[in-house]
Amino acid sequence: MKETLTIVLSGEAGQGLQTIEEFLVQSIKSDYHVFSNKEVMSRVRGGNNTVEIVISDKQVYAYRNDIDVLFLLNNDSFDRLKKRVHEKTVIIGESSFLSEDNKKKYEMIELNLTELSKTAGNKLYANTILFGYIARMISLETSICEQIIRSNFKKLKEEIIEANIQAFSLGYNHYKKTAMIKEIAKNSMADDYKMIDGTTALSIGALAGGCNFVASYPMSPSTGVLIYLSKKAKEFNVLVEQAEDEIAALNMVIGAWYTGARGLATTSGGGFALMGEALSLSGITETPCVIHIAQRPGPATGLPTRTEQGDLNLALYAGHGEFPRIILAPGKLEDACLLGQKAFYLADKYQVPVIILTDQYFLESMGEMKKMFFEEKYLKQFIEKTDSGYLRYKLSDHPVSIRGVPGFGDGFVKVDSDEHGENGLLTEDFDIRVQMNDKRLAKEKLILDDYQEANLIGSSEYDNLIIGWGSTYGVLEEYVRESKDSTSFLYIKQVYPLSSKLLPYLRKAKKIICVENNATGQFANLLHWYLDVKADIRILKYNGEPFSIEEINLRLKEATK
After folding, report:
1. Measured between alpha carbons, how far is 492 from 328 in angstroms, rounded to an integer?
2. Do the Cβ atoms of 383 and 363 come closer than 8 Å?
3. Is residue 146 within 8 Å of 23, Cβ to Cβ?
4. Are 259 and 281 in contact (CB under 8 A)?
5. With contact defined as beta carbons under 8 Å apart, do 506 and 524 qualify?
6. Residue 20: CA atoms inside 13 Å, Cβ hemisphere, count?
7. Do 128 and 167 form a contact (C-beta atoms < 8 A)?
8. What is the CATH number of domain 4-192?
9. CATH fold of 455-559
10. Is this prediction's pTM over 0.85?
11. How far apart are CA 413 and CA 260, in angstroms?
12. Distance between CA atoms of residues 292 and 286, nearest Å
Protein backbone atom coordinates (compact mmCIF):
# COMPACT_ATOMS: atom_id res chain seq x y z
CA MET A 1 0.00 0.00 0.00
CA LYS A 2 1.29 3.44 -0.84
CA GLU A 3 2.03 6.16 1.68
CA THR A 4 0.70 9.65 0.99
CA LEU A 5 0.96 13.10 2.52
CA THR A 6 -1.81 15.53 1.63
CA ILE A 7 -0.90 19.21 1.95
CA VAL A 8 -3.57 21.90 1.46
CA LEU A 9 -2.83 25.60 1.07
CA SER A 10 -5.83 27.76 1.84
CA GLY A 11 -6.06 31.47 1.04
CA GLU A 12 -7.86 33.99 -1.11
CA ALA A 13 -7.77 34.82 -4.81
CA GLY A 14 -4.83 37.11 -5.47
CA GLN A 15 -2.53 35.56 -2.83
CA GLY A 16 -0.53 33.64 -5.41
CA LEU A 17 -1.63 30.08 -4.66
CA GLN A 18 -1.01 29.05 -8.26
CA THR A 19 2.59 30.27 -8.04
CA ILE A 20 3.22 28.21 -4.90
CA GLU A 21 1.61 25.19 -6.54
CA GLU A 22 3.87 25.46 -9.59
CA PHE A 23 7.00 25.88 -7.46
CA LEU A 24 6.14 22.89 -5.31
CA VAL A 25 5.09 20.38 -7.97
CA GLN A 26 8.15 21.20 -10.09
CA SER A 27 10.48 20.58 -7.17
CA ILE A 28 8.63 17.67 -5.55
CA LYS A 29 8.60 15.56 -8.71
CA SER A 30 12.36 15.02 -8.49
CA ASP A 31 11.98 12.95 -5.31
CA TYR A 32 8.35 11.89 -4.97
CA HIS A 33 5.27 11.09 -6.99
CA VAL A 34 2.89 14.04 -6.87
CA PHE A 35 -0.60 15.11 -7.90
CA SER A 36 -2.19 18.51 -7.37
CA ASN A 37 -5.63 20.00 -7.82
CA LYS A 38 -7.33 23.22 -6.89
CA GLU A 39 -10.64 24.58 -5.69
CA VAL A 40 -11.43 28.11 -6.81
CA MET A 41 -14.32 30.38 -5.90
CA SER A 42 -15.96 32.46 -8.64
CA ARG A 43 -14.41 35.84 -7.88
CA VAL A 44 -11.36 37.85 -8.94
CA ARG A 45 -10.16 38.64 -5.43
CA GLY A 46 -11.13 37.44 -1.96
CA GLY A 47 -13.15 34.36 -1.14
CA ASN A 48 -11.43 31.14 -0.18
CA ASN A 49 -9.39 29.10 -2.65
CA THR A 50 -7.38 25.98 -1.99
CA VAL A 51 -4.56 24.07 -3.61
CA GLU A 52 -4.15 20.42 -2.69
CA ILE A 53 -0.79 18.68 -3.23
CA VAL A 54 -0.65 14.93 -2.71
CA ILE A 55 2.84 13.48 -2.24
CA SER A 56 3.39 9.73 -2.45
CA ASP A 57 6.00 7.01 -2.79
CA LYS A 58 3.96 5.58 -5.71
CA GLN A 59 1.93 7.13 -8.51
CA VAL A 60 -1.15 8.92 -7.28
CA TYR A 61 -4.11 10.12 -9.33
CA ALA A 62 -6.92 11.01 -6.97
CA TYR A 63 -8.23 13.91 -4.92
CA ARG A 64 -7.99 13.43 -1.15
CA ASN A 65 -10.65 14.72 1.20
CA ASP A 66 -8.64 14.22 4.41
CA ILE A 67 -5.96 16.83 5.03
CA ASP A 68 -2.66 15.92 6.70
CA VAL A 69 -1.10 19.39 6.73
CA LEU A 70 -3.16 22.57 6.35
CA PHE A 71 -1.53 25.96 5.73
CA LEU A 72 -3.77 28.92 6.60
CA LEU A 73 -2.93 32.06 4.66
CA ASN A 74 -5.65 34.42 5.90
CA ASN A 75 -8.50 34.85 8.40
CA ASP A 76 -11.08 33.13 6.18
CA SER A 77 -9.01 30.11 5.26
CA PHE A 78 -10.20 27.58 7.86
CA ASP A 79 -14.00 27.56 8.13
CA ARG A 80 -14.79 26.03 4.74
CA LEU A 81 -12.36 23.17 5.39
CA LYS A 82 -13.69 22.00 8.77
CA LYS A 83 -15.15 18.80 7.31
CA ARG A 84 -11.77 17.83 5.83
CA VAL A 85 -9.78 18.34 9.01
CA HIS A 86 -9.33 15.44 11.46
CA GLU A 87 -7.65 14.91 14.83
CA LYS A 88 -4.24 14.23 13.25
CA THR A 89 -4.27 17.22 10.91
CA VAL A 90 -1.39 19.63 11.52
CA ILE A 91 -2.47 23.26 11.04
CA ILE A 92 0.21 25.82 10.22
CA GLY A 93 -0.25 29.58 10.00
CA GLU A 94 -0.61 32.77 11.96
CA SER A 95 -2.17 32.22 15.36
CA SER A 96 -4.90 34.80 14.69
CA PHE A 97 -6.17 32.75 11.70
CA LEU A 98 -7.61 30.08 14.02
CA SER A 99 -10.23 30.72 16.72
CA GLU A 100 -9.46 29.95 20.34
CA ASP A 101 -11.99 27.10 20.35
CA ASN A 102 -10.36 25.49 17.33
CA LYS A 103 -6.91 25.88 18.85
CA LYS A 104 -8.10 23.61 21.65
CA LYS A 105 -9.26 20.97 19.15
CA TYR A 106 -6.35 20.91 16.71
CA GLU A 107 -2.58 20.97 16.81
CA MET A 108 -1.29 24.28 15.45
CA ILE A 109 2.21 25.42 14.51
CA GLU A 110 2.82 29.16 14.32
CA LEU A 111 4.08 30.45 10.96
CA ASN A 112 3.79 34.23 10.72
CA LEU A 113 4.39 34.97 7.04
CA THR A 114 3.48 38.62 7.58
CA GLU A 115 6.42 39.14 9.96
CA LEU A 116 8.77 36.96 7.93
CA SER A 117 7.91 38.96 4.80
CA LYS A 118 8.88 42.16 6.60
CA THR A 119 12.21 40.55 7.45
CA ALA A 120 12.65 39.60 3.80
CA GLY A 121 11.89 43.19 2.78
CA ASN A 122 8.58 42.88 0.93
CA LYS A 123 5.20 41.22 1.54
CA LEU A 124 5.40 39.83 -2.01
CA TYR A 125 8.05 37.39 -0.79
CA ALA A 126 5.52 35.52 1.39
CA ASN A 127 4.99 32.81 -1.25
CA THR A 128 8.71 32.19 -1.67
CA ILE A 129 9.15 32.01 2.11
CA LEU A 130 6.35 29.45 2.27
CA PHE A 131 7.99 27.50 -0.56
CA GLY A 132 11.18 27.31 1.50
CA TYR A 133 9.31 26.23 4.62
CA ILE A 134 7.56 23.36 2.85
CA ALA A 135 10.76 22.39 1.02
CA ARG A 136 12.45 21.82 4.39
CA MET A 137 9.39 20.04 5.75
CA ILE A 138 9.46 17.40 3.00
CA SER A 139 13.27 17.32 2.55
CA LEU A 140 13.58 18.79 -0.93
CA GLU A 141 16.97 19.58 -2.46
CA THR A 142 17.66 23.29 -2.05
CA SER A 143 19.69 23.46 -5.26
CA ILE A 144 16.73 22.20 -7.29
CA CYS A 145 14.37 24.63 -5.57
CA GLU A 146 16.67 27.59 -6.21
CA GLN A 147 17.00 26.54 -9.84
CA ILE A 148 13.20 26.55 -10.15
CA ILE A 149 13.03 30.05 -8.63
CA ARG A 150 15.59 31.30 -11.16
CA SER A 151 13.76 29.65 -14.03
CA ASN A 152 10.35 31.06 -13.09
CA PHE A 153 11.68 34.57 -12.41
CA LYS A 154 14.21 34.67 -15.27
CA LYS A 155 12.56 37.74 -16.84
CA LEU A 156 13.01 39.76 -13.64
CA LYS A 157 16.07 41.71 -12.52
CA GLU A 158 18.89 39.75 -10.91
CA GLU A 159 18.48 41.55 -7.58
CA ILE A 160 14.83 40.47 -7.41
CA ILE A 161 15.79 36.87 -8.16
CA GLU A 162 18.43 36.97 -5.43
CA ALA A 163 15.95 38.49 -3.00
CA ASN A 164 13.56 35.60 -3.68
CA ILE A 165 16.30 33.06 -3.10
CA GLN A 166 17.07 34.76 0.22
CA ALA A 167 13.35 34.64 1.07
CA PHE A 168 13.33 30.92 0.24
CA SER A 169 16.29 30.39 2.60
CA LEU A 170 14.49 32.36 5.32
CA GLY A 171 11.50 30.04 5.10
CA TYR A 172 13.69 26.94 4.82
CA ASN A 173 15.63 27.79 7.96
CA HIS A 174 12.50 28.77 9.87
CA TYR A 175 11.07 25.24 9.77
CA LYS A 176 11.52 23.14 12.89
CA LYS A 177 11.24 19.37 12.40
CA THR A 178 8.24 17.82 14.11
CA ALA A 179 7.15 14.21 14.50
CA MET A 180 3.57 15.27 13.89
CA ILE A 181 4.21 15.41 10.13
CA LYS A 182 4.71 11.96 8.65
CA GLU A 183 7.56 11.31 6.27
CA ILE A 184 7.18 9.71 2.83
CA ALA A 185 9.84 7.51 1.29
CA LYS A 186 11.45 9.03 -1.79
CA ASN A 187 11.13 7.25 -5.13
CA SER A 188 14.02 7.42 -7.59
CA MET A 189 11.65 6.71 -10.51
CA ALA A 190 9.54 9.81 -9.84
CA ASP A 191 11.77 12.03 -11.97
CA ASP A 192 10.98 9.95 -15.07
CA TYR A 193 7.67 11.79 -15.32
CA LYS A 194 6.78 15.29 -16.46
CA MET A 195 4.25 17.38 -14.54
CA ILE A 196 1.46 18.58 -16.78
CA ASP A 197 -2.17 19.66 -16.42
CA GLY A 198 -5.16 18.55 -18.49
CA THR A 199 -5.38 21.86 -20.35
CA THR A 200 -1.83 21.52 -21.60
CA ALA A 201 -2.23 17.83 -22.47
CA LEU A 202 -5.36 18.45 -24.54
CA SER A 203 -3.81 21.45 -26.27
CA ILE A 204 -0.73 19.42 -27.20
CA GLY A 205 -3.03 16.75 -28.59
CA ALA A 206 -4.81 19.33 -30.74
CA LEU A 207 -1.49 20.54 -32.15
CA ALA A 208 -0.47 16.93 -32.82
CA GLY A 209 -3.75 16.52 -34.71
CA GLY A 210 -2.81 19.35 -37.05
CA CYS A 211 -4.98 22.04 -35.47
CA ASN A 212 -4.11 25.27 -37.25
CA PHE A 213 -7.16 27.38 -36.44
CA VAL A 214 -8.97 28.05 -33.18
CA ALA A 215 -11.95 30.36 -32.68
CA SER A 216 -13.57 30.73 -29.28
CA TYR A 217 -15.30 33.09 -26.93
CA PRO A 218 -13.60 32.86 -23.50
CA MET A 219 -15.52 30.78 -20.99
CA SER A 220 -14.09 29.03 -17.95
CA PRO A 221 -12.82 26.40 -17.60
CA SER A 222 -12.11 26.06 -21.35
CA THR A 223 -10.24 29.34 -21.79
CA GLY A 224 -6.91 27.77 -20.88
CA VAL A 225 -6.91 25.85 -24.16
CA LEU A 226 -7.46 29.06 -26.12
CA ILE A 227 -4.64 30.76 -24.20
CA TYR A 228 -2.23 27.85 -24.66
CA LEU A 229 -2.82 27.65 -28.41
CA SER A 230 -2.47 31.42 -28.74
CA LYS A 231 0.96 31.18 -27.09
CA LYS A 232 1.94 28.51 -29.63
CA ALA A 233 0.44 30.38 -32.60
CA LYS A 234 3.72 31.41 -34.22
CA GLU A 235 5.61 28.22 -33.44
CA PHE A 236 2.93 25.94 -34.89
CA ASN A 237 1.34 28.29 -37.42
CA VAL A 238 -2.03 28.44 -35.67
CA LEU A 239 -4.47 31.22 -36.49
CA VAL A 240 -6.25 32.26 -33.28
CA GLU A 241 -9.47 34.25 -33.22
CA GLN A 242 -11.32 35.44 -30.13
CA ALA A 243 -14.82 35.55 -31.59
CA GLU A 244 -17.57 37.96 -30.59
CA ASP A 245 -19.67 35.04 -29.30
CA GLU A 246 -19.88 31.26 -29.36
CA ILE A 247 -22.23 31.20 -32.36
CA ALA A 248 -19.65 33.02 -34.48
CA ALA A 249 -16.83 30.86 -33.11
CA LEU A 250 -18.19 27.55 -34.34
CA ASN A 251 -19.30 29.04 -37.66
CA MET A 252 -15.72 30.28 -38.13
CA VAL A 253 -14.37 26.81 -37.33
CA ILE A 254 -16.73 25.21 -39.86
CA GLY A 255 -15.65 27.78 -42.43
CA ALA A 256 -12.01 26.96 -41.73
CA TRP A 257 -12.61 23.25 -42.30
CA TYR A 258 -14.49 24.06 -45.53
CA THR A 259 -11.33 25.68 -46.90
CA GLY A 260 -9.05 22.83 -45.81
CA ALA A 261 -7.88 23.92 -42.34
CA ARG A 262 -8.26 21.91 -39.15
CA GLY A 263 -10.18 24.06 -36.68
CA LEU A 264 -11.16 23.85 -33.02
CA ALA A 265 -13.78 25.62 -30.93
CA THR A 266 -13.22 25.40 -27.18
CA THR A 267 -16.05 26.30 -24.81
CA SER A 268 -18.09 25.20 -21.80
CA GLY A 269 -21.67 23.93 -21.57
CA GLY A 270 -23.29 27.37 -21.68
CA GLY A 271 -21.26 28.33 -24.73
CA PHE A 272 -21.95 25.04 -26.49
CA ALA A 273 -25.68 25.58 -25.94
CA LEU A 274 -25.37 28.58 -28.27
CA MET A 275 -23.62 26.48 -30.91
CA GLY A 276 -26.57 24.18 -31.62
CA GLU A 277 -27.50 25.66 -34.99
CA ALA A 278 -23.88 25.68 -36.18
CA LEU A 279 -23.52 22.06 -35.05
CA SER A 280 -26.45 21.15 -37.30
CA LEU A 281 -24.80 23.09 -40.12
CA SER A 282 -21.77 20.82 -39.74
CA GLY A 283 -24.12 17.84 -39.80
CA ILE A 284 -26.01 18.64 -43.00
CA THR A 285 -23.07 20.07 -44.96
CA GLU A 286 -20.89 17.16 -43.80
CA THR A 287 -18.17 19.62 -42.90
CA PRO A 288 -15.86 18.35 -40.15
CA CYS A 289 -15.38 20.28 -36.91
CA VAL A 290 -13.84 19.63 -33.50
CA ILE A 291 -15.43 21.09 -30.37
CA HIS A 292 -14.01 20.93 -26.86
CA ILE A 293 -16.59 21.19 -24.06
CA ALA A 294 -15.06 21.85 -20.64
CA GLN A 295 -17.88 20.83 -18.33
CA ARG A 296 -18.91 22.69 -15.21
CA PRO A 297 -22.10 22.48 -13.11
CA GLY A 298 -25.24 23.97 -14.66
CA PRO A 299 -28.00 24.80 -15.35
CA ALA A 300 -27.28 28.35 -16.54
CA THR A 301 -24.15 29.82 -14.93
CA GLY A 302 -24.42 27.23 -12.15
CA LEU A 303 -21.08 26.85 -10.39
CA PRO A 304 -18.74 28.30 -13.02
CA THR A 305 -15.46 27.38 -11.32
CA ARG A 306 -16.40 23.87 -10.15
CA THR A 307 -16.62 20.48 -11.81
CA GLU A 308 -19.30 18.11 -13.12
CA GLN A 309 -20.01 15.59 -15.89
CA GLY A 310 -23.43 17.01 -16.65
CA ASP A 311 -23.14 17.81 -20.37
CA LEU A 312 -22.99 14.35 -21.95
CA ASN A 313 -26.66 14.54 -22.91
CA LEU A 314 -26.13 18.06 -24.24
CA ALA A 315 -23.26 16.89 -26.44
CA LEU A 316 -25.24 13.91 -27.66
CA TYR A 317 -28.55 15.58 -28.44
CA ALA A 318 -27.53 19.14 -29.35
CA GLY A 319 -28.50 20.37 -32.78
CA HIS A 320 -31.78 19.99 -34.62
CA GLY A 321 -32.36 17.07 -36.94
CA GLU A 322 -30.56 13.76 -37.02
CA PHE A 323 -26.91 13.39 -37.94
CA PRO A 324 -23.93 11.39 -36.65
CA ARG A 325 -21.28 12.65 -34.27
CA ILE A 326 -18.43 11.29 -32.17
CA ILE A 327 -17.94 12.08 -28.48
CA LEU A 328 -14.58 11.41 -26.82
CA ALA A 329 -13.83 11.76 -23.10
CA PRO A 330 -10.19 11.54 -21.96
CA GLY A 331 -9.68 10.58 -18.32
CA LYS A 332 -5.90 10.53 -18.10
CA LEU A 333 -3.28 12.90 -19.39
CA GLU A 334 -1.90 10.59 -22.07
CA ASP A 335 -5.40 10.16 -23.48
CA ALA A 336 -5.99 13.90 -23.54
CA CYS A 337 -3.01 14.05 -25.89
CA LEU A 338 -3.96 11.01 -27.96
CA LEU A 339 -7.69 11.65 -28.19
CA GLY A 340 -7.01 15.33 -28.86
CA GLN A 341 -4.99 14.24 -31.87
CA LYS A 342 -7.44 11.56 -33.03
CA ALA A 343 -10.40 13.94 -32.82
CA PHE A 344 -9.11 15.86 -35.85
CA TYR A 345 -8.37 12.65 -37.75
CA LEU A 346 -11.85 11.23 -37.09
CA ALA A 347 -13.59 14.49 -37.96
CA ASP A 348 -11.67 14.66 -41.24
CA LYS A 349 -12.14 11.00 -42.11
CA TYR A 350 -15.89 10.83 -41.51
CA GLN A 351 -16.83 14.48 -42.12
CA VAL A 352 -18.71 14.76 -38.83
CA PRO A 353 -18.49 16.91 -35.70
CA VAL A 354 -16.24 15.42 -33.03
CA ILE A 355 -16.80 16.59 -29.46
CA ILE A 356 -14.19 16.24 -26.71
CA LEU A 357 -15.65 16.26 -23.20
CA THR A 358 -13.47 17.29 -20.25
CA ASP A 359 -14.28 19.14 -17.02
CA GLN A 360 -12.80 21.68 -14.64
CA TYR A 361 -11.21 19.09 -12.36
CA PHE A 362 -9.45 17.30 -15.21
CA LEU A 363 -8.24 20.47 -16.94
CA GLU A 364 -6.86 22.20 -13.86
CA SER A 365 -5.30 19.26 -12.02
CA MET A 366 -1.59 18.58 -12.43
CA GLY A 367 -0.33 15.01 -12.71
CA GLU A 368 2.55 12.93 -13.96
CA MET A 369 2.97 11.81 -17.56
CA LYS A 370 5.74 9.76 -19.08
CA LYS A 371 7.30 10.63 -22.41
CA MET A 372 5.04 9.53 -25.26
CA PHE A 373 5.00 9.61 -29.04
CA PHE A 374 2.29 10.52 -31.52
CA GLU A 375 1.48 8.51 -34.63
CA GLU A 376 1.88 10.42 -37.88
CA LYS A 377 -0.95 8.47 -39.51
CA TYR A 378 -3.42 10.64 -37.60
CA LEU A 379 -2.19 13.67 -39.53
CA LYS A 380 -3.53 12.15 -42.75
CA GLN A 381 -5.91 14.49 -44.56
CA PHE A 382 -8.88 13.21 -46.53
CA ILE A 383 -9.09 16.06 -49.04
CA GLU A 384 -8.91 15.18 -52.72
CA LYS A 385 -8.27 17.22 -55.83
CA THR A 386 -11.53 17.77 -57.71
CA ASP A 387 -12.30 17.51 -61.40
CA SER A 388 -14.75 19.57 -63.43
CA GLY A 389 -17.56 17.06 -62.88
CA TYR A 390 -17.13 16.94 -59.10
CA LEU A 391 -20.26 16.20 -57.03
CA ARG A 392 -19.82 17.04 -53.35
CA TYR A 393 -22.50 14.57 -52.19
CA LYS A 394 -22.35 11.82 -54.81
CA LEU A 395 -24.60 9.02 -53.60
CA SER A 396 -23.08 6.08 -55.45
CA ASP A 397 -19.61 6.41 -53.94
CA HIS A 398 -19.84 5.80 -50.22
CA PRO A 399 -21.62 7.17 -47.13
CA VAL A 400 -18.56 9.41 -46.79
CA SER A 401 -18.37 11.55 -49.93
CA ILE A 402 -15.13 12.68 -51.52
CA ARG A 403 -14.32 16.03 -49.93
CA GLY A 404 -12.82 18.77 -52.01
CA VAL A 405 -11.97 22.32 -51.01
CA PRO A 406 -12.22 25.51 -53.05
CA GLY A 407 -9.22 26.13 -55.29
CA PHE A 408 -7.83 22.61 -55.15
CA GLY A 409 -8.75 21.22 -58.56
CA ASP A 410 -11.29 22.23 -61.18
CA GLY A 411 -14.46 21.27 -59.33
CA PHE A 412 -17.08 23.60 -57.83
CA VAL A 413 -17.35 22.86 -54.10
CA LYS A 414 -20.96 23.69 -53.24
CA VAL A 415 -22.37 23.13 -49.76
CA ASP A 416 -25.78 24.21 -48.51
CA SER A 417 -27.57 24.38 -45.18
CA ASP A 418 -30.80 23.36 -46.98
CA GLU A 419 -31.32 19.77 -47.97
CA HIS A 420 -29.46 19.28 -51.21
CA GLY A 421 -28.79 16.99 -54.10
CA GLU A 422 -25.50 15.42 -55.12
CA ASN A 423 -24.21 18.71 -56.53
CA GLY A 424 -24.87 20.62 -53.29
CA LEU A 425 -27.76 22.64 -54.68
CA LEU A 426 -30.86 22.78 -52.52
CA THR A 427 -33.75 20.44 -53.24
CA GLU A 428 -37.25 19.72 -52.00
CA ASP A 429 -37.40 16.30 -53.63
CA PHE A 430 -38.69 13.91 -50.98
CA ASP A 431 -36.85 10.89 -52.34
CA ILE A 432 -33.51 12.71 -52.41
CA ARG A 433 -34.17 13.92 -48.88
CA VAL A 434 -34.46 10.32 -47.68
CA GLN A 435 -31.38 9.25 -49.65
CA MET A 436 -29.24 12.07 -48.23
CA ASN A 437 -30.43 11.53 -44.67
CA ASP A 438 -29.76 7.79 -44.92
CA LYS A 439 -26.33 8.52 -46.40
CA ARG A 440 -25.37 10.73 -43.47
CA LEU A 441 -26.69 8.33 -40.83
CA ALA A 442 -24.92 5.36 -42.45
CA LYS A 443 -21.60 6.84 -41.33
CA GLU A 444 -22.21 5.65 -37.78
CA LYS A 445 -21.55 2.01 -38.71
CA LEU A 446 -18.25 3.04 -40.29
CA ILE A 447 -17.34 5.18 -37.28
CA LEU A 448 -17.68 2.15 -35.02
CA ASP A 449 -14.94 0.43 -37.04
CA ASP A 450 -12.60 3.10 -35.62
CA TYR A 451 -14.01 2.80 -32.08
CA GLN A 452 -11.59 4.05 -29.41
CA GLU A 453 -11.68 0.84 -27.45
CA ALA A 454 -12.08 0.99 -23.70
CA ASN A 455 -9.33 -0.09 -21.29
CA LEU A 456 -9.88 -2.76 -18.67
CA ILE A 457 -7.96 -1.93 -15.48
CA GLY A 458 -7.49 -4.72 -13.02
CA SER A 459 -7.85 -8.46 -13.40
CA SER A 460 -9.62 -9.96 -16.42
CA GLU A 461 -11.32 -12.24 -13.88
CA TYR A 462 -13.79 -10.14 -11.95
CA ASP A 463 -17.19 -10.29 -10.31
CA ASN A 464 -17.75 -6.54 -10.07
CA LEU A 465 -17.16 -4.19 -12.98
CA ILE A 466 -16.92 -0.44 -12.39
CA ILE A 467 -17.77 1.73 -15.41
CA GLY A 468 -16.31 5.22 -15.59
CA TRP A 469 -15.52 7.89 -18.15
CA GLY A 470 -13.64 11.16 -18.20
CA SER A 471 -12.15 12.54 -15.00
CA THR A 472 -13.38 9.71 -12.77
CA TYR A 473 -10.52 7.68 -14.26
CA GLY A 474 -7.95 8.69 -11.64
CA VAL A 475 -9.87 7.86 -8.50
CA LEU A 476 -11.29 4.61 -9.96
CA GLU A 477 -7.90 3.46 -11.23
CA GLU A 478 -6.41 4.10 -7.83
CA TYR A 479 -9.23 2.26 -6.07
CA VAL A 480 -8.87 -0.84 -8.25
CA ARG A 481 -5.07 -0.80 -7.99
CA GLU A 482 -5.21 -0.69 -4.18
CA SER A 483 -8.23 -2.93 -3.52
CA LYS A 484 -8.03 -6.69 -3.10
CA ASP A 485 -11.59 -7.62 -3.96
CA SER A 486 -12.78 -9.10 -7.26
CA THR A 487 -13.40 -5.73 -8.88
CA SER A 488 -12.09 -4.28 -12.15
CA PHE A 489 -12.62 -0.97 -13.91
CA LEU A 490 -13.70 -0.44 -17.52
CA TYR A 491 -12.51 3.00 -18.60
CA ILE A 492 -14.60 4.27 -21.54
CA LYS A 493 -12.77 6.73 -23.81
CA GLN A 494 -15.40 7.06 -26.55
CA VAL A 495 -18.78 7.61 -24.97
CA TYR A 496 -20.64 7.84 -28.27
CA PRO A 497 -21.33 5.99 -30.47
CA LEU A 498 -21.05 2.93 -28.25
CA SER A 499 -19.67 -0.27 -29.74
CA SER A 500 -20.83 -3.84 -29.26
CA LYS A 501 -17.13 -4.52 -28.54
CA LEU A 502 -17.99 -3.52 -24.96
CA LEU A 503 -20.53 -6.32 -24.48
CA PRO A 504 -18.10 -9.13 -23.59
CA TYR A 505 -16.76 -7.00 -20.71
CA LEU A 506 -20.26 -6.11 -19.53
CA ARG A 507 -21.84 -9.55 -19.81
CA LYS A 508 -19.02 -11.13 -17.84
CA ALA A 509 -19.74 -9.07 -14.72
CA LYS A 510 -22.03 -10.25 -11.95
CA LYS A 511 -22.53 -6.63 -10.89
CA ILE A 512 -22.09 -3.44 -12.95
CA ILE A 513 -21.45 -0.19 -11.08
CA CYS A 514 -21.50 3.15 -12.95
CA VAL A 515 -19.66 6.05 -11.32
CA GLU A 516 -20.42 9.54 -12.63
CA ASN A 517 -20.21 13.19 -11.59
CA ASN A 518 -23.83 13.97 -12.47
CA ALA A 519 -27.26 13.57 -10.92
CA THR A 520 -28.99 11.23 -13.39
CA GLY A 521 -26.37 8.71 -14.49
CA GLN A 522 -26.20 9.98 -18.05
CA PHE A 523 -23.71 7.37 -19.27
CA ALA A 524 -25.49 4.56 -17.43
CA ASN A 525 -28.59 5.58 -19.39
CA LEU A 526 -26.65 5.37 -22.66
CA LEU A 527 -25.52 1.84 -21.82
CA HIS A 528 -29.13 0.87 -21.27
CA TRP A 529 -30.51 2.57 -24.36
CA TYR A 530 -27.81 1.68 -26.87
CA LEU A 531 -26.39 -1.65 -25.63
CA ASP A 532 -29.34 -2.90 -23.55
CA VAL A 533 -27.13 -3.22 -20.48
CA LYS A 534 -28.50 -1.99 -17.19
CA ALA A 535 -26.19 -0.85 -14.39
CA ASP A 536 -26.94 -2.58 -11.11
CA ILE A 537 -25.73 0.37 -9.03
CA ARG A 538 -25.15 4.04 -9.84
CA ILE A 539 -22.75 6.04 -7.71
CA LEU A 540 -23.39 9.71 -8.48
CA LYS A 541 -22.05 13.03 -7.22
CA TYR A 542 -23.11 16.49 -8.38
CA ASN A 543 -22.26 19.06 -5.70
CA GLY A 544 -19.44 20.60 -7.76
CA GLU A 545 -16.65 18.50 -6.21
CA PRO A 546 -14.82 15.54 -7.73
CA PHE A 547 -14.98 12.15 -6.05
CA SER A 548 -12.39 11.77 -3.30
CA ILE A 549 -10.54 8.49 -2.78
CA GLU A 550 -12.06 8.22 0.71
CA GLU A 551 -15.57 8.59 -0.68
CA ILE A 552 -14.97 6.07 -3.46
CA ASN A 553 -13.49 3.58 -1.00
CA LEU A 554 -16.55 3.86 1.21
CA ARG A 555 -19.20 3.80 -1.52
CA LEU A 556 -17.63 1.06 -3.64
CA LYS A 557 -16.99 -1.22 -0.69
CA GLU A 558 -20.65 -0.87 0.19
CA ALA A 559 -21.68 -1.45 -3.45
CA THR A 560 -19.54 -4.56 -3.90
CA LYS A 561 -20.72 -6.42 -0.79
Report:
1. 9
2. no
3. no
4. no
5. no
6. 32
7. yes
8. 3.40.920.10
9. Rossmann fold (3.40.50)
10. yes
11. 12
12. 19
Distance CA 107, CA 104 (A): 8
**Fold match between domain 196-379 and domain 455-559:** yes
Query: Are the C-beta atoms of residues 280 and 321 closer than 8 Å to each other?
Result: yes
Q: How far apart are CA 14 and CA 24, in angstroms?
A: 18
Q: Name the DSSP letter for residue 547.
A: P
- Measured CA to CA, the distance from residue 24 to residue 331 in angstroms comes to 24
| pLDDT tens track for 327-377 | 999 999 999 999 999 999 999 999 999 999 999 999 999 999 999 999 999
How does pLDDT run across 471-494, given as a tens digit for each residue? 999 999 999 998 888 999 999 999
Quick check: helix, strand or coil at residue 48?
A: strand
| Structural contact between residues 106 and 98, judged by C-beta atoms closer than 8 angstroms | yes
Residues of the chain above pLDDT 70, percent: 100
263 contacts 343 by C-beta, under 8 angstroms:
no
CA–centroid distance for 149 within its chain? 27
Q: Please name every residue paired with 33 in a beta bridge, in sequence order, or none if there are none.
A: 56
Strand-pair partners of 403: 383
Query: What is the three-class DSSP state of 311?
Result: coil
Domain ranges of the chain: 4-192, 196-379, 383-450, 455-559
CATH number for 196-379 (one of 3.40.50.720, 3.50.50.60, 3.40.50.970, 3.30.465.10): it is 3.40.50.970
Cis preceding linkage at 299, omega within 30: yes
Helix (H, G, I), strand (E, B) or coil at 258: helix
Distance CA 170, CA 157 (A): 20
Q: Which of 325, 292, 289, 329 is nearest to 309 (CA)?
A: 329
